[in-house]
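The following record pairs a protein chain with its ligand, PBG.
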Amino acid sequence: MELTNRPRRLRRTDAVRRMCRETRLSPDSLIYPIFVDETLSGTRPIESLSGQYHYGLDSVTKAVEDCLQHGVTHCILFGLPKSKDAVGSSAWDENGVVQQAIRSIKAAYPDFYVITDVCMCEYTDHGHCGILCGHEVDNDKTLEVLSKTALSHVEAGADMVAPSDMMDGRIAAIRETLDQHGYTMTPIMSYSAKYASAFYGPFRSAAGSAPSFGDRKGYQMDPHNRKEALKECALDVEEGADILMVKPALSYLDVIRECSDAFELPMCAYQVSGEYAMIKAAAAAGLVDEYRIMCESALSIFRAGANMLITYYAKELADAIRKGDIG
Ligand code: PBG
């Protein structure tokens, strides 16, 4: 047999495989979610997310220290406030849980990059992502509270804000508010194509943010849709977003690929709580090799076109990259 083309030549040894990798990962592109609970002192394991913790305001710097030990230098903050009301006013309180957390992180670790999730669902007593009018979320009224919330995060020292509410026009509204207050250089990462997904289940029990009635289908995207993701991204580009995001990740690799091909902005993906919890559960049942599944799933998200990844596995992935098991 005289074969000229033998793709196996480039697969023979670890050295040649590593040289020929098409996808490269770096710990710099990993973002770790941190949950801060205003009513907590110390840390508490999150039941729905094995291996993850709630941090009290007195121990949020411990979360950062753990990240830094693994070489993870970026986080996204989520807050569990001590009180909730119909409009979510604890979200923009200058002494709210996220605002205090930012200040203590920045006092101890000024270079640690802090992104904040901007949404109302953890702060409203009904668990929806905005202000209600009857049983519907009022889009334009919600823009005002989102803008106030984003501004309060930036005033407290956040490096970047990431609105996850899926209201129309929120990027323009937040950009205008930040600019008016002199924060023209603070970037916005938009959860552009955020689907109404069942994969958020473990997060909602961790963050206490499940809607008390109905669902989020009136504002988050229908999982059947692909072109709509392009439309959402295009609107965000027009409104001044700096980074686009697709969420969840693994069931939406096609959307990541398409949006990253279509737009010049950096593309983030969020490997959400259900994706993480499923790997954990399958590994705990002895069905899969957790480490290899973690590596392969993260890799697939980058191969699909993501430039950065929010993941509960950020620390373990940073170690895997450093060891050369991926990236
Ligand atoms: C807030 C928000 C959610 C997630 C990130 N920001 C929950 C939701 O939309 O219900 C989900 C993250 C995850 O599942 O890991 N709106």
